[in-house]
Each structure stands twice: as structure tokens, then as C-alpha cells.
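Researcher: We're teaching a course module on how sequence relates to structure. For the next exercise, students receive a sequence and then see the predicted structure as C-alpha cells, so they can try to spot secondary structure elements on their own. Here is the exercise chain.
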Amino acid sequence: MSSFLGRFSLLWFLFFFGHFSAIALPPPDDIPEEVLATEIITEARSPLNNEPLTTEEYVTLTEKQANSKYPPQISSDIRQKIFLLRIINLIRTISPL
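Model: And here is the predicted structure for the students to work with:
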């Protein structure tokens, strides 16, 4: 009798809740990530001021940044926030809270 109830409850569960698994599927018009990873991106944005750049301008800018002997300049506000985050991480390693 208990195996009958077990089978019945499993069938009842699948009948009423089995359609929720279809919700997890992507929409049919969605492009798979594998296809997107092979696409060649021809437009880019400047990491300095977020302006649109052509491919040639982007390559020259990245080469210029890579060949620079000076590190990139960070504003004092961002430096202060990084310092505070490092202090918070230090406190978290010491304190269990």
C-alpha cells in the first residue's frame, strides 16, 4: 500500500509541477554563448572616457597604455575607497563578524 502511495504522490507531483522545468529553458530566439564568443567585435569604448572608438583607435589606445612607463593615475576618491576596503578586509579576517 505504501509503495502505491509513493508512486501516486510522485505522479501527482510530476503532473502538477512538471511544467516548471520548462521555465528554466532560454527563449528560442536567444543566441547561445558559444556563438557570441566567436563573434568579432568591431566597436569598442574608451576605458578613459567611455567614448565610442573604432577598432584601429582602440588598438592604438591599448598599445599606448601598455607601453607607458607610468602607472595609470587614480583619483584620490577612488584611492581612499580602495584603502577603506582593504581595512575592512583586514578587519574581516581578524573578526568573525
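Model: If you want an answer key for the exercise: The helical segments are 2-17, 33-38, 55-66, 76-94. The chain has one domain: 2-94.
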